[in-house]
Amino acid sequence: MDQLRVVRMIVLLFLSTVSSTTDPCQHHGVINQARRSSAATVDDSDLVICDIYLDKGWYRFTSYTGGEIPTSCVQPYQCSTEVPLWMDGTLPEGDDIVNRTACGNLGDPSDCCTIPIDIRVKRCTEPSGVFYVYELQPTYSCPMAYCAGSLPLCPDGEVYDDFHKHCIETRPVVPCDFEGHGFCEWLQERDDELDWTKTTGHHSSGSVLPGLDHTLGTATGSYAFIRSSASNQPGYRARLISPVIVTSKTDTCNVNFYYQGSGTLRVYKKGYHGSRKSLVWRSPPIMVTAWTATVVSLVHTNPFQVIIEGTLGSDGQSAVFLDDVSFSTGCSSEVDGAVRLVDGARFGEGRVEVYYDHEWGTICNRSWTQTNGDVICSQLGYTSAVPTSRQYPAPSATPIHLDEVSCSSANVTKISACSHSRWGHYHPHCDHQRDVSVACTGEHTSLTSLCCHLTLPLPSPILMPQGRDYGSVQYQPPPLSPVI
Ligand SMILES: [Ca+2]
Ligand SMILES: [Ca+2]
Asked: What is the Å distance from ligand 1's center to 222 Cα?
């Protein structure tokens, strides 16, 4: 019996034995499909939702378009289905489970509840507020589906930034083959023992270094590495930090790379608005003597960064090599106007760089104000800026993007929305000695909800159209311990 069938049997067993006694606020499936919004019509997409194969059970709607089934009549062809289901009756105000009727609307002007389906609702609370869970059953026919929420969908090409609560344009992350200048969009972390360096693959077979790089497979190809030396001791670490990543929710997001060597390579992810990082992959504890392809899956709700960390082993001959780091199409980065902090001694501090026209550049500090700094820190998810005398000048090749920035209020959502010089135009007195650096304080309070729902394969998948996946439905089973 394969693993999937075992998992399905376990899930079904618990559905039948435990579900009647567990709290649906704690144990429910998750439906994250923005297209269920009453603001989304079938015309918005050629894909239609149908719930005929939905397993009966408790569900929570988690999409950015809203988590509640509408309580007033919804017209046919809304909610990305032909027969939308709305809820007749009010949401419960107490903690009891209440019976309600979901109404399928076939378009009869005299009856908005042509097809009634019994459902139940429970009000739940969590630190961030109130939400509702619904006990749903499959629909009788297709295409008929439960509506959820009423907010508009993000336009094509944009994804929802759950942290800032708005849709953002995105761009592909630049792949890094280490052939050009520097480390592409990756930054060296300063708060570690080593930096990664680059070399070309012209080393002899007796060297600890690989003879060829991975990209070109020639002596002129380059890769990144760390290695032991008199000053590079066992256990020393070097970290590369990725640009800020948002996941598209339509494709899977992976980071791909090739590595070899005798030290340890680890991959972490870190919420962009927090300092906690979590391990998502580590290399096996053996010497790897050929370029080895690695794919690391990245699942994260809010914008995040990937950290690739090499650690030198204990034998004094240790080295780690890295080449061709890229992200899958489900990962993207924010477009023009995004900001980052570079070269700082800690997270939340450093030289301010703004992304514009495919390039990161600095801001000249002429007439810079505390309010401007607050906007930068707020855009990055911190509370405010604190005074700092530390400067982190950029290398000379870095462009100066902005000058004369003036934010009228700290409530402006991003620095590029403040008044400023034309992009790339600045006073002759501006040079990198005048780059703006900031230190931010106070992580945002919403950082605590970054993670995790246990996700298992669906006992029977919801009927989804072919092609792109426009969301997800996850069944979160009760804990396994009561029966084992
Ligand atoms: Ca470093
Ligand atoms: Ca290369």
From this structure: 19
> By the 8 A CB rule, do 321 and 259 touch?
yes
The CATH number covering residue 434 comes to 3.10.250.10
Span from the CA of 104 to the centroid of ligand 2 (angstroms): 58
Ligand 2 centre from 256 Cα, in Å? 14
Q: Is the pLDDT of residue 335 over 80?
A: no
Ligand closest to CA 210: 2
Closest ligand (CA of 187):
1
CA of 384 to the centre of ligand 1 (A): 27
CATH number assigned to the domain comprising residue 179 = 2.60.120.200
pLDDT at 455 over 50: no
**Are 111 and 185 members of one domain?**
no
Q: Are 44 and 150 found together in one domain?
A: yes
Residues with C-beta atoms within 5 A of ion ligand 2: 177-178, 213, 215, 221-223, 323
Nearest partner of 59 among 167, 145, 173, 158, judged by Cα: 145
Look up the pTM and report it: 0.58
Same domain, 180 and 316: yes
176: CA distance to ligand 2 center in Å? 8
Calpha distance 345→437 (Å, rounded)? 12
β-pair partners for 238: 194, 310
Q: What is the dihedral of CA 136, 139, 144, 147, to 10 degrees?
A: -10
Q: Among residues 318, 334, 350, which one ends one of the domains?
A: 334
Quote the number of domains for the chain: 3
Whether residue 378 is contained in a domain is answered as yes
